[in-house]
Amino acid sequence: MAHTQSGTASLTAVRPHRPRLRAVDPDEVVDLARVADFLPPGATLLPAPPNALPTLPGRPPMVGYLVLLPADQQPHVPAPGPVAEEQGPVSIDSVQRIAVVDGQPMDLTYLEFELLAHLVAHPHRVHTRDQLVTTVWGYGHVGDGRTVDVHVARLRRKLGAEHRRTIQTVRRVGYKYTP
User: Fold this and answer.
1) So what's the pLDDT on residue 19?
2) What confidence tens digit (pLDDT) does each residue in 144-160 have?
3) Does position 35 have pLDDT exceeding 50, yes or no?
4) In the chain, which ranges are E strands?
5) What string of H, E and C letters represents the secondary structure of 13-42?
6) d(Cα 150, Cα 53) in Å, to the nearest integer?
7) What distance in Å separates the CA atoms of residue 115 and residue 83, rounded to the nearest whole number?
8) Residues with Cβ within 8 Å of residue 109, at least 6 apart in sequence
9) Confidence band for 68, pLDDT divided at 50, 70 and 90
10) Whole-angstrom Cα distance, residue 53 to residue 151?
11) Sheet with 167-170, edge to edge strand ranges
12) Is the whole model's pTM more than 0.70, yes or no?
């Protein structure tokens, strides 16, 4: 099952997150009747078309659902709370979209920020290039793992000599963040 995630829209510098799909382990799959209890009034839950979902090599096919809201209904946006994610020398503030290393803000592009935030949120977890393309770039991205390699190289340069090794290459698999 995959789910979408929508971010908050603010009149300041915060850009809304685009809907994303995330592969889940079998133990994370929930009963759809329980999910329906959390839907806003008037919302409809529909199975996503199979051809709209990505396929990952060696993984079972994803199952996704679309949540349709009436046009006059705005999604409920919770009040922002503490959102700083800190792992080792890197701290991520997803509301202000700031990455800080050793107290110094980093100058990152949109995709560099998304990639670093994803890696920092899942320390020590190995991510394949295909998984990173799917979660960071989105399921509709057309490209290959070299795109990830280029962005990781840029991130390492921006992290500096002291912290570039926090993003480690796992040969023939992908990358992991180790604080």
Assistant:
1) 47
2) 668 889 999 999 999 99
3) yes
4) 44-47, 65-68, 84-87, 90-93, 98-101, 104-105, 127-128, 167-170, 174-177
5) CCCCCCCCCCCCCHHHCCCHHHHHCCCCCC
6) 25
7) 17
8) 154
9) confident
10) 24
11) 127-128, 174-177, 167-170
12) no
pLDDT at position 147: 86
DSSP 3-state of 123: coil
Nearest to 88 by CA among 178, 164, 153: 178
Q: 117-131 burial by CB neighbour count: b if 16+ within 10 A, else e? A: bbbbeeeeeebbbbb
Examine the pLDDT at 3 and tell me if it is beyond 50. no
- Is residue 87 classed as helix, strand or coil in its secondary structure? strand
- Alpha-carbon gap, residue 28 to 34, rounded angstroms: 13
Token pair belonging to 41 = 């009034």
pLDDT tens digits for range 96-153: 889 999 889 999 999 999 999 999 999 999 999 888 888 888 766 666 668 889 999 9
Alpha helices in the chain (DSSP H): 32-36, 110-121, 129-132, 145-159
Task: Pick the closest to residue 101 from 149, 158, 18 (CA basis).
Answer: 158
DSSP state at residue 159: H
The token pair at 153 is: 């190289």
Q: Residue 39 is which amino acid?
A: L
Cα–Cα distance, 154 to 131 (Å, whole number): 19
Return the structure tokens found at 59.
Answer: 């993984």
Residues in the chain: 179
Residue with tokens 């998984």: 131
